[in-house]
Amino acid sequence: MKIEKRVIILIILISLFILSNNIIAQEKNTQVDKAYTCFESEVGNDCGNTKSTRQNAFNLLAASYKSDLQSSCKSSLKQKIKENCWGETDTGVCNIKSTALSILALDHVNENVKDYVDWLKSKRINEKELTWFIEIDANNKTECTINGQKITIDNNKKILGNVPNGLLKAYNDYWFEIKDTSKDYSISCDRDFITALLFLKPGSSAYHISSETKFAYLYYGTVIDRVNSYCFSTSNICDYEGSLWATLVLAKLGEDISNFLPYITAMSDKTENKKYIPSSFLYILTHSDDYYNDLVSLQRSGGYWDESKNKFYDTALALFALLDVDSGEVDNAKRYLLSNQKESGCWPSDTSFILHAAWPKTPTVSGGGVSLSACEDFGKFCVSIGECLSEDTLNNFYCSSSSQVCCNRDFIEPTCSEKRGVICNQEETCEGQKVLASDTNECCQGDCVLVDLEPQCEKELYVCRSTCSENEEEKISYSNSCDVGEICCGKKPVEKKQTGFLLIVILIILIILVILAIIFRNKLKSRFKAKDEGSKKQELPRTPPTFSPPVLRPPLFRRPALPVGRIPPRQFQKLGNKDKEFEETMKKLKDMSK
After folding, report:
1. Of all helices (H) and strands (E), which one includes residue 285?
2. Separation CA 400–CA 404 (nearest Å)
3. Number of domains making up the chain
């Protein structure tokens, strides 16, 4: 019977858990539906009558599920076009970002974008911010020729001989620095050899190896190395944010983007570029664990991102990259967004981009391009751009998000052990990098070490909560020690203004009391004096009375006055026996009292 009761209780608990999850899911769906209703109301029949190309493009992406909204936004966006490109507004000069966003939105609804892509490609330029090197390596001493100039690679791998035009010896004569990046460098050797292109970004000592690694056989192989590193620009200076969006668009369309990755990768940690959250774009393009960690490390304790001082846009951009990821970071970000909706259901800004990034709907495709079909309806897989090999990408199918492609194979994340990681126990923390794996979201590529489970927040006598109460404030420096979704809360300090006001009030009261004391001081003195005199009259002697000799009566006859200066001898009456006994008794009493 006891076992049956336990089973029944367990079933009830599981049922309650499932029911609560369903209720929460329904509430979220209701909030998302409310947001889409508000969005439709704001867009109306003229795509919100917006002059901003960026807003128009995001509106089209979010409205792609409904044919009438899609049609109005598509028409509005095309009205802003000028010579196959777009500016920030309908009257602005063409730029890279606006054109890339317009191409992304139009391609999502199956519009022909070839002419616009050609304009984008025409704006690629050779980047000049990276320093490039050629490394030639062989197992033994090797004679080589570079553009007709003979050199020797010694047994110790050092370069001997004259340097060909356009190159300089570098890295202690182990590499060539490429001074002229516009030239081709034809290399052949008398042994098997490999070449690799490396680059160094400004202000850094870390060298990066590009994907341009080539191998050639003895006498039969000639390698041609050329620096193919590009960015996008409408001038002679690289446009970093524009290059991010343009590279994303080309990858979405199945173009080779390997020549754009060195620049956007190397420049990602420059201070002025961090506001664009480049790790979001790079994770979409490469599906690299490094960029995933960079991206989630930027998430604030409240569940949002805020690098450009626009929490809603930045959070949407992060979710745009993490759409396929099932993690606590994604859940917290969505929870933050849903908790910051206006009463109408919209957000204070970027409602369309938030909806497309976090809760995209499958588009209604009826454009003039090639006929498309829903990817998953035919047993295919919608995955992030970087998760599908180019040969497996299917361009005649569409997905709900513009950050996804239809892939012939489902992407399966390697296990933690396959990523050479370990899963730490609950009482341990990872000293190293945490990466996603198919069997855990907490795969540690490092060491697991025991930790003190008590958060630093609570050690400081504060409390970890999901939100702080009215009389509390967040202690930001300790929030990271709390669990995911919680922040460190402590009592608000007393404001200086209130303290100063209280001191002023006390000072005024003291001044009033002093004035009253001065005014009534005489009355107070007389009252206290009368009280003291009365108390003195009623006061009894505290010591036993002492004996005084009897006062002698004055003589009947007055004696003549004595001359001045003479003191008459003191005279006493002769005492009787009784008086002597009394005097002796009193003397004994005095002696005893000493």
Report:
1. helix 278-286
2. 8
3. 3
Q: Which residue has the higher pLDDT, 278 or 226?
A: 278
Spatial distance between the Cα atoms of 451 and 513, rounded to a whole number of angstroms = 60
Q: Which residues are CB-contacts of 427 (< 8 A; sequence separation ≥ 6)? A: 450, 451, 453
Which residues have CB under 8 Å from 479's CB, separation 6+?
Answer: 301, 457, 486, 487, 488
Length of the chain: 594
Q: What tens digit of pLDDT does each residue of 143-199 get?
A: 999 999 999 999 999 999 999 999 999 999 999 999 998 899 999 998 899 999 999
- Check: CB of residue 154 under 8 Å from CB of residue 141: yes
Judgement on whether residues 333 and 461 belong to the same structural domain of the protein: no
* Alpha carbon distance 336, 300 (integer Å): 11
- Could you give the dihedral angle defined by the CA atoms of residues 501, 503, 509 and 514, in that order, rounded to the nearest 10 degrees? -140
Sheet holding 193-200, edge to edge: 167-170, 175-178, 131-137, 193-200, 207-216
Same domain assignment for residues 136 and 91: no
As a whole number of angstroms, the distance between CA 90 and CA 70 comes to 19
One-letter amino acid of 483:
D
List the CATH number of the domain containing 477.
2.20.20
DSSP letter assigned to residue 76? H
Q: How far apart are CA 167 and CA 136, in angstroms?
A: 13
